[in-house]
Amino acid sequence: MNRMERLKVLAEPLRLRVVALLNAQELCAAELQGILGMAQSTFAGHMAQLKRVGLVGVRRVGGQVVYSAATLDDAALAALITSEPLDEADRFALDRVVASRTGDAAETLDADFLPGRNWEGLAHLLLRLLPPLRIADLGVGSGELTRLLASSHPEARIIAIDLEPEVLRDLGSNVEPRCGDLAEPPLTPGEVDLALYSQSLHCVADPLLALKNLHAKLAPGARVAVLDLAPHTHAWVQGKLGHKHLGFSDLGGLLEQAGFHHVSCDVVHRDRRSPAFTTLLAVGTR
Ligand SMILES: C[S@@+](CC[C@H](N)C(=O)[O-])C[C@H]1O[C@@H](n2cnc3c(N)ncnc32)[C@H](O)[C@@H]1O
Hints:
Elements: H1 3-10, H2 13-24, E1 27-28, H3 29-36, H4 40-52, E2 56-61, E3 64-69, H5 75-82, H6 88-101, H7 119-128, E4 134-138, H8 144-152, E5 157-162, E6 175-179, E7 194-198, H9 207-217, E8 223-229, H10 236-241, H11 251-257, E9 261-270, E10 278-285
Bound molecules: S-adenosylmethionine.
């Protein structure tokens, strides 16, 4: 196979990731697809390209398709490929996949594991207890929180705000999607009782200005809640996830500077595994 053909296939960053992952570890199709987080049809297309030019090997073990890095006859290309480092997020995901393969599942459980207890269940429980509210969900992302709020709390009216129109689709019958910038949230004054930023304030260039602009749109007594990260050193989140700030050293102070009162700010979660992030929850009242 000619080198140019192979280089063309590797020009797609995702395929380069696949090769770097397989250089580190042989993986079955489901494991690899899980790490890449993509739909079957897209995954199959990329793998077909890599197989076509002989960059990955495939074998069947029982009912499973297992992929591995191919042994190349082109020494210069092989050296180039093996020097491609795994990025930190892929290394983390790969370590989890490998750890979950070994041994009896019961023996690998954390000491505080409780069957059936999970954050989704706890969130549904707490949301059911809320009174009817008008909520602004600022920064929708995958829509996990928006859908959780909408389904757990059918009497709530949720205004979901994001820059990206495609994340605003199919969020629930009690969700009103609004395309707009968190820097100047598209809300009319007094329209909501509660404004939420869940892992979105760090995406905004000037968080203080965004909070001040939100403050101006809230009626006295309305509340703001911000879930975000404590300061961290994972600079890869800037390129990979579009973060503009590596956490906040004084999230509560930021809310106070924006004009909010009765501010609290607490650590609500610390990841025990790498990449270890610490989650803060800050709450304030207009
Ligand atoms: C990490 S996601 C939010 C996750 C979500 N809140 C959750 O808890 O699952 C960040 C979202 O903020 C949006 N975003 C980033 N900067 C923005 C801005 N300036 N204005 C509006 N949306 C923005 C992105 O499009 C993305 O959908």
